[in-house]
Each structure stands twice: as C-alpha cells, then as structure tokens.
Design brief:
By secondary structure, this protein is α+β, with helices and mostly antiparallel strands. The protein has one domain: Aminoglycoside phosphotransferase (APH), C-terminal lobe (Aminoglycoside 3'-phosphotransferase, Chain: A, domain 2). Helices cover about 40% and strands about 20% of the residues. The protein has a 5-stranded antiparallel beta sheet. A 3-stranded antiparallel beta sheet has the order 6-8-9, covered by helices on one side. Strand 2 and strand 3 form a beta hairpin. Helix 2 packs across helix 6 and helix 5 crosses helix 7. The longest helix is centred in the C-terminal third of the chain and has 21 residues. The radius of gyration is 18 Å and the shape is globular. The chain starts with a strand and ends with a helix. The model has no long low-confidence stretch (mean pLDDT about 95).
Length: about 240
C-alpha cells in the first residue's frame, strides 16, 4: 500500500499524495473553484481532476519533472525553459477569464505593509528593503490584463525532455500583468530568463520582470516565516533581494 506523503501543510491548506493521486484540502473554497474552472479553459496541459468534494480536490499526478526548484540550480535544458516560455505565451494570449484579478492599489498596500513589517523587525538592512521597495513600485502601474497563472513558481511547470507536460496549481489564476508570471517563473533563476523569453517572444520589459522579483520577495518573507518554512535568512528570496 502506498504511504501518505505530505507535500504542503500549513494553516490555510494542505496537499497530500497517495500513489498517483494528489488531494488538496483548502480552507478557502473559492481557491479550489478557481483552480477547477481555470484548468478547464487554459490552452496548456494541466493535471486531470479526479473528484471534488468540499473541502478537498483530487488530482492525478502529471508526467515529467519540475522545471526547477527555487534556491537550487536547474538541470533542465535551455530548450525546456524556452518551452516553458512558449506555454506561458499561449496562456497570456488566451481569452481573459470571467473573474478579475487584483487591483494595483491592492498590491501597493501589500507592499507598504510588508516593508513596514520588515523594517520594524529589522529582518534585512534598511537600505536593502528600501532599494527593493523602490524597484518593486515600478511594477505597480496600469497594465493591459492577460490570463495569468498567478503563482507560476518554477516547480509548478513540469517537463519531459524539452516539452512541457503540465502546469499545476491554478488557484491564483486571474487577470493580471504578464510580467508577474514571467518574474515568478524565473525568480532565483535569472540565468534562464533569456531562455524563457526565447520561447515567450516579444513585448517584454526586463526591468518590469526585475521589479516583480523584488515585489514577490518582499511580500512573501513574513508569510513564509509565519507558516513554518524556517529562518528568514535561509530563504532564497533573501538572496534575490540582496542581489538587486
């Protein structure tokens, strides 16, 4: 009999694996609703829904391996990264989902709130926080919305050889800024940004991708710390902020 593997577990959600089945349990049913609806309409491969009974969603395992992991070198080929970029372009070119995304003012308020917390707790040198805060603010402008994944971490993209086999975890899908997805995918892997953009094509501002790197890192540190992911100094996000 297969053992139960805990993939993710914190106070908001948990993901368990039993053999080739993943069971996601979420306190917010709208996230699971979004995930199921998004997977049904996106023009890229996704996991197969096996069943849905609130508060749980069962998904079939997808073929292939993750394109990479944050904080670790990726062994995937440049062609595989380019294939990831091409898949993201197909998503961004798709018709918009019926539901909206987050407003610019929401991001701005979150950035200010998280930076104040980082400064008050002296998590990083003040100049590092200020420098990245100023950079992140450049991403917070009006954008032409596209269909975004919303949490396109590198380990959410699966490949076999040089082909994308699936993109998983669609609970944050919405309308939003294309640069945000591209930044999340390449966070911690700046050496593969060129590869991704080869597959993605034109219309990309690299400075905005760098700005979203700072935005994501500044806004994630407290959440990661409070949900038991370790000491903040060990997070790959801290390394990204220090390099900016």
């Amino acid at each position: 009999m297969d053992e139960i593997q805990v993939v993710v577990a914190h106070s908001e959600r948990a993901t368990l694996r039993v053999g080739d089945v993943f069971v996601k349990i979420d306190t917010d049913q709208t996230r699971l609703d979004t995930e199921v609806e998004a997977m049904g309409i996106v023009p890229v491969p996704t996991a197969r829904v096996l069943w849905r009974h609130a508060p749980a969603l069962a998904l079939a395992a997808v073929p292939g391996v993750a394109l990479g992991n944050l904080g670790e070198p990726s062994t995937a080929s440049p062609a595989a990264w380019a294939a990831g970029g091409a898949a993201v372009r197909r998503l961004h070119d798709a018709p918009l989902p019926r539901w909206p995304g987050r407003a610019v003012d929401d991001f701005r308020a979150e950035l200010d709130r998280e930076c104040e917390w980082l400064l008050a707790h002296e998590i990083l040198p003040a100049d590092t926080i200020t420098r990245n805060r100023d950079l992140a603010r450049t991403a917070l402008r009006e954008w032409t919305p596209v269909f975004i994944h919303g949490d396109l971490q590198v380990d959410h993209v699966f490949v076999e050889g040089d082909e994308v086999t699936a993109i998983i975890d669609w609970s944050e899908a919405s309308r939003g800024d294309a640069h945000r997805d591209l930044a999340t995918l390449t966070l911690g892997h700046p050496d593969h940004l060129d590869d991704v953009l080869v597959g993605y094509g034109g219309g990309v501002d690299r400075d905005l991708i760098r700005a979203w790197w700072s935005m994501r890192c500044l806004c994630n540190l407290r959440w990661l710390h409070e949900h038991g992911y370790g000491e903040i100094d060990t997070f790959p996000e801290v390394a990204v902020l220090r390099r900016a």
